[in-house]
Design brief:
The protein is an alpha/beta fold. Helices cover about 40% and strands about 25% of the residues. α1 links the parallel β1 and β2.
Length: about 150
């Protein structure tokens, strides 16, 4: 499975950068994984073929109005994608203002990390950790159980 996590905006906080790098490294044990900053929403949509030039990946955008999944449900989501879809799975984390309605309409799935508002840089780290946790669930690794 190929997995890309793309986020809008430059990395500003060294602690966030360190955690981003750590979870990207951990994810690479389970899937071909890229982390990619993009300039803006239009660049994200263009990069992943959402402007009329074919579909280069299944696009999942993070938004507070999206579907909330447990860690186990996210693991199942990844497994189902892996079993049924050869295209890369692309997760997009918006900037401070989130995504426009137009961008959300182009997403294949909209995912919410919960009802609380989370800073977009922190949301990136939470998403990466949850993706890592989901893969450990699928592989039966004890990380999810807290051992």
């Amino acid at each position: 499975m190929k997995l890309t996590v793309a986020w809008i905006g430059k990395r500003k906080n060294p602690a966030i950068q360190s955690l981003t790098d750590e979870y990207l490294k951990r994810l690479r044990q389970y899937a071909e994984t890229d982390g990619l900053p993009v300039k803006d929403e239009a660049a994200l949509l263009k990069l992943y073929g959402r402007h009329g030039r074919g579909n280069r990946g299944r696009l999942v955008l993070l938004d507070s109005r999206g579907k909330q999944l447990s860690s186990e449900e996210l693991a199942q989501f990844l497994q189902e994608h892996q079993d049924r879809n050869p295209l890369p799975l692309v997760f997009g984390v918006g900037g401070a203002d989130g995504f426009t309605a137009e961008a959300l309409a182009q997403a294949d799935f909209t995912l919410s990390l919960g009802k609380m508002t989370v800073a977009h840089e922190l949301a990136r780290v939470v998403l990466l950790e949850q993706l890592y946790r989901a893969f450990t669930i699928l592989k039966g690794h004890p990380y999810h159980l807290g051992h």
